[in-house]
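Example S7 (C-alpha cells).
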C-alpha cells in the first residue's frame, strides 16, 4: 500500500513538473480559436467550393457545438519598397493573416468593433463589405503599402491596434468568394467552453469534424499552441512544485524506513543465510531485488489508477495533463523513483549486509 501510494504521488508530481510551462491561463487564451480545419494543404488544385463547405458546416453546427467560424487567409506578397530581408521577416509574422466572417451580421459587428480601434487610416464601410471590394484592415504593424493575397491586390484602408496575440487583419467575405481565394484554414469556435471542459469538448468536436470533412486535416488550437510552448519554453520549478518534490522525498525516506524495519524483522533468516555461506553482497542483492519486484508491481497498479483518473478527473483541474502525460511520462517517472529508492535503500542494504550473523540474531531477538 505504501509503495502504491508513493508511486501514484510520484507520477502526479512528475506530471505537474512536466506541465509547469503550460498553465491553465495559457491554455484558456486559445479558446477563441478552438479547432482548425486546414484547407489549402489538402487541396490538389486551387478550387474551393464555398457553398458546399458552408452547407455541410451549418447543417452540423448544433451537433458539433459550433458557436461561430471564420476563414483565414495568408498574406503572400507585399507591394512595397522594403528590401527582401524585411519582406521575409514580415511574411513570417503570423499576425499578417486575414480573417473573413461568412455570417453577414457577425461580419458587420466584428468590423464595427475593429473600426473603433483604428489608429491610422480608416475602417471598412458597409458598402465595401456588401460589395466585396478588395480592401482590408491591417492588424498591428504599420505598412505603407498595398498587399497581395493569392495574386489579388488588396488596399489597406486602415490599421488597428491589436490587444492580444490572436488578432488578424480582416477582408470582406464576399471579396474572398468573388476572387476565388482558397482559405488556409477555417477557425471554428466552440460554444459552452470553460477551463474545466474545453479540452474534452474540443477533442469530441475534432472527431465529429474529421467524419464531416475527411478530405481535410483537423487540429486543435490548444494542442498546437501548447506543443509550440513546450518547444520554446523551459520547464519551471514553481513554489508548488518545489513543495511537492520535498514532500515526495519525505515519503520515499519514510518508505525506506518502513522497509528497513521489515529487514530488521528478518535478520534471523539472513543470519542463517550467512552461516550457510552467503556473502555480504548476496544479502544486499536479496533485499534490493525484493524491493525492486515489489516496487515494479505497485508502480504498475498506481499507473493504471493514475491513467484512469487522468482521463476522468485530472483534466478538469489540470488541463495540461491531457496534453503532456504520455507513455514517456510513466517510463521516466518509474526510473526516477527507482533510482532514488536504490540510492537510499540500496545504501542501507549494503551496510546491513555487512553485519555479522551474531549481531543479526541479537538484533532479531531484541525486536522480538
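Recovered sequence:
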Amino acid at each position: 500500500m505504501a509503495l502504491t501510494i508513493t508511486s501514484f504521488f510520484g507520477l502526479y508530481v512528475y506530471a505537474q513538473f512536466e506541465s509547469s510551462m503550460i498553465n491553465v491561463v495559457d491554455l484558456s487564451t486559445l479558446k477563441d480559436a478552438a479547432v482548425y480545419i486546414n484547407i489549402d494543404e489538402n487541396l490538389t488544385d486551387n478550387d474551393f467550393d464555398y457553398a458546399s463547405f458552408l452547407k455541410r458546416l451549418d447543417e452540423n453546427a448544433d451537433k458539433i457545438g459550433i458557436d461561430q467560424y471564420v476563414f483565414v487567409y495568408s498574406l503572400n506578397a507585399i507591394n512595397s519598397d522594403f528590401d527582401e530581408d524585411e519582406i521575409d521577416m514580415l511574411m513570417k509574422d503570423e499576425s499578417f493573416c486575414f480573417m473573413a466572417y461568412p455570417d453577414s451580421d457577425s461580419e458587420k459587428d466584428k468590423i464595427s468593433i475593429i473600426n473603433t480601434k483604428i489608429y491610422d487610416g480608416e475602417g471598412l464601410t458597409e458598402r465595401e463589405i456588401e460589395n466585396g471590394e478588395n480592401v482590408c484592415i491591417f492588424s498591428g504593424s504599420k505598412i505603407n503599402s498595398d498587399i497581395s493575397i493569392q495574386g489579388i491586390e488588396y488596399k489597406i484602408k486602415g490599421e488597428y491596434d491589436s490587444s492580444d496575440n490572436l488578432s488578424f487583419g480582416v477582408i470582406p467575405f464576399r471579396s474572398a468568394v468573388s476572387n476565388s481565394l482558397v482559405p488556409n484554414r477555417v477557425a471554428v469556435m466552440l460554444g459552452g467552453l470553460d477551463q474545466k471542459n474545453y479540452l474534452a469538448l474540443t477533442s469530441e468536436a475534432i472527431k465529429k469534424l474529421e467524419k464531416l470533412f475527411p478530405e481535410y486535416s483537423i487540429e486543435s488550437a490548444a494542442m498546437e499552441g501548447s506543443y509550440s510552448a513546450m518547444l520554446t519554453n523551459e520547464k519551471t520549478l514553481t513554489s508548488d512544485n518545489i513543495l511537492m518534490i520535498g514532500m515526495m522525498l519525505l515519503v520515499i525516506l519514510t518508505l525506506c524506513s518502513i522497509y528497513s524495519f521489515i529487514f530488521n524483522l528478518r535478520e534471523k533468516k539472513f543470519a542463517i543465510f550467512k552461516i550457510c555461506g552467503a556473502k555480504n553482497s548476496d544479502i544486499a542483492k536479496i533485499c534490493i531485488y525484493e524491493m525492486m519486484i515489489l516496487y515494479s508491481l505497485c508502480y504498475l497498479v498506481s499507473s493504471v489508477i493514475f491513467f484512469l483518473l487522468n482521463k476522468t478527473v485530472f483534466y478538469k483541474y489540470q488541463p495540461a495533463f491531457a496534453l503532456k502525460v504520455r507513455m514517456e511520462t510513466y517510463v521516466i517517472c518509474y526510473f526516477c523513483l527507482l533510482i532514488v529508492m536504490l540510492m537510499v535503500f540500496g545504501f542501507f542494504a549494503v551496510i546491513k549486509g555487512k553485519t555479522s550473523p551474531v549481531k543479526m540474531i541479537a538484533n532479531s531477538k531484541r525486536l522480538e
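Notes on this example. The chain has a mean pLDDT of 77.
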